[in-house]
Amino acid sequence: MLKLNKKGFTLIELLVVIAIIGILASIVLVSLNSARQKGYDTQIKSDIAQIRNGMEMCYDTNGGTYVGCTTAAALGITALTPPACSGDASYIGTTIGVTASAYAIHADLCAGTFDWCVDSTGKAKATAAAVADNATVCP
To answer: Rounded to 5 degrees, what are φ and ψ at 100?
Structure first.
């Protein structure tokens, strides 16, 4: 009797293993991209909260008015740069609508088609519609 010693894997077995690894890798990459966008959104929300704090300090310093509180120097913060995925080139100036008694700050979020908006009334929320640059209240 002739005995055959089977050593190694067949081509089919190797192809199945490679296909499974490819499927798992694609699932991991999709999850990683989603986590990255959520991280960017957290950065945007944190930066805008920092600007909000600066606005309130500027309000107190300026004798109860928000006028003049739209620059990084006036807010007492370093310049903040949004992530590249956000459609806003800068949070400061172009995304702050200010009057003497009200303001609204907004920026595009990365993980969706929403703006993150905070205003002087205490609102902080995602808005489905884009917020106008001169708005002083979040919709």
So the answer is: -65, -30
Evaluate if residue 5 carries a pLDDT over 70.
Answer: no
Rounded CA separation 83/130 (Å): 18
- Domain assignment present for residue 113? The answer is yes
130 vs 34: CA distance, rounded Å = 22
Domains identified in the chain, total number: 1
Q: How many helices (H) and strands (E) does the chain have?
A: 2, 4
Instruction: Report residue 40: phi and psi, to 5°.
Output: -60, -40
What is the sign of the dihedral through the CA atoms of 67, 52, 133 and 135?
negative
State which amino acid sits at residue 123: K
In a domain, 137, yes or no: no
Q: Which residue, chain included where needed, has tokens 């929403």?
A: 114
The answer to whether residues 48 and 75 touch, using CB atoms and an 8 Å cutoff, is no
80, 120 Cβ separation under 8 angstroms = no
List pLDDT tens digits, range 55-71: 999 999 999 999 888 88
